[in-house]
Amino acid sequence: MRIGIVAGESSGDTLGAGLIRAIRHRHPDARFEGVAGPLMAAEGCRALYPAETLAVFGIIEVLKHLPRLLAVRRDLRKHFLADPPDAFIGIDAPDFNLGLETKLREAGIPTVHYVSPSIWAWRPERVFTVGRAADLVLAILPFEPPLYQRHGFKAEFVGHPLASAIPAEIDRLTLRRRLNLDAKTLVAILPGSRFGEVTRLGPLFLDTARWLLARRPDIAFVIPAATPRLQALIEQQLRISVPSLPVTVVAGHAREALGAANAALVASGTATLEAMLMQCPMVVSYRIAPLTHWIVYKVKRFASPYVALPNLLAGRELVPEFLQDRAVAADMGAALLALLDDAVVCAQQLEGFRTLGGVLRRGADERAAEAVLELLSARSGIKA
Questions:
Q1: pTM listed for this prediction
Q2: Are 235 and 200 in contact (CB under 8 A)?
Q3: 3-class DSSP string for the chain
């Protein structure tokens, strides 16, 4: 069995590695090649290009690198058309993968798209673009498959890989000892994992911490920094804004910091899902540039009433969201204080977190592998 596979970013590399491992568990002689990160390469995937080739963010940055990205996609298309694999799997990166999947599918190669684009949030007509590109969509959120199935496209919910990687029970005291955190009340501050996010949200989040500390002097804070560059930026922001804040800045360990904390202020993104799975009560906030906000809501027609993943999964505001002009330090601080002081408010969040964690915890790697192999069995007679 030979499978083409393309993943961009570290999250795609993680998904790809788990999928390769699960398929190889059933078919030890299976071969994989395409765009791969270090984790996929460690599982034996032959990297025609490294995953970082696709790691380009922002409208201007994408335009700058567009000729190179198009050349890479043309090269991959020629490679797989000249020597067709038994299947092709595109992991996330829809702007890159869907066009490639469409061409390969037209040539008769079974195609899979792993991680649905956010068609439930904006441009719902993209369901037809994805449906034309992929024989099978592997969805990591439970409400996504019906959006495809109502139009006759095949999609399966396989669970979320993060949920499979995080235990259902969290030992908060052990995590505190591991990070050398001994405060009675600990609040985690996560202003993002990208330089632009921390530049934009860091001062606001630190203002919120200062507001909270003025009302609860017993509180201490922990801020995980995703990279050394971000750690330097956070420490600079602390020196400028709140040099006396009782805070520990840790290199990495975001998941452990969330598990150790009594509550968290989190930038919208994957970290909200990690906080939910680590059973950390949270307040969510985000700000983007006004022009970007206009593009997202007017041009891309953002339709979802929520942005935080726990709220999207729950279908209600399980966690408070403070976005754009509503992102005010006093309001966010008051919401955090409610989580710390009101046991009922905190328990309501945690009950929702446990329920949603159970929905997502389905063994995503194994389920995704099973779905891919069933497609191959139906199309090529390869034993599932």
A1: 0.82
A2: no
A3: CEEEEEECHHHHHHHHHHHHHHHHHHCCCCEEEEEECHHHHHCCCEEEEEHHHHCCCCHHHHHHHHHHHHHHHHHHHHHHHHCCCCEEEEECCHHHHHHHHHHHHHCCCCEEEECCCCCCCCCCCHHHHHHHHCCEEEECCCCCHHHHHCCCCCEEECCCHHHHHCCCCCCHHHHHHHCCCCCCEEEEEECCCCHHHHHHHHHHHHHHHHHHHHHCCCEEEEEEECCHHHHHHHHHHHHHHCCCCCEEEEECCHHHHHHHCCEEEEECCHHHHHHHHCCCCEEEEECCCHHHHHHHHHHCCCCCCCCCHHHHHHCCCCCCEEEHHHCCHHHHHHHHHHHHHCHHHHHHHHHHHHHHHHHHCCCHHHHHHHHHHHHHHHHHCCCC
Walk along the chain (384 residues) and give the pLDDT tens digit of each residue.
999 999 987 778 889 999 999 999 999 999 999 999 999 999 999 999 988 777 654 444 556 767 888 999 999 999 999 999 999 999 999 989 999 999 999 999 999 999 999 887 677 889 999 999 999 999 999 999 999 999 999 999 999 988 988 988 899 999 999 999 988 899 999 998 888 889 999 999 999 999 999 999 999 999 999 889 999 999 999 999 999 999 999 998 999 999 999 999 999 988 999 999 999 999 999 887 666 655 655 555 555 678 899 999 999 999 999 988 899 999 999 999 999 999 999 999 999 999 999 999 999 999 999 999 999 999 877 776
Name all domains of the chain by residue range, CATH numbers in brackets.
Answer: 2-159+362-380 (3.40.50.2000), 172-360 (3.40.50.2000)
Q: Which strands, in side-by-side order, build the sheet including 46-50?
A: 46-50, 31-36, 2-7, 87-91, 111-114, 136-139, 155-157
**How far is Cα 40 from Cα 12, in angstroms, rounded to an integer?**
9
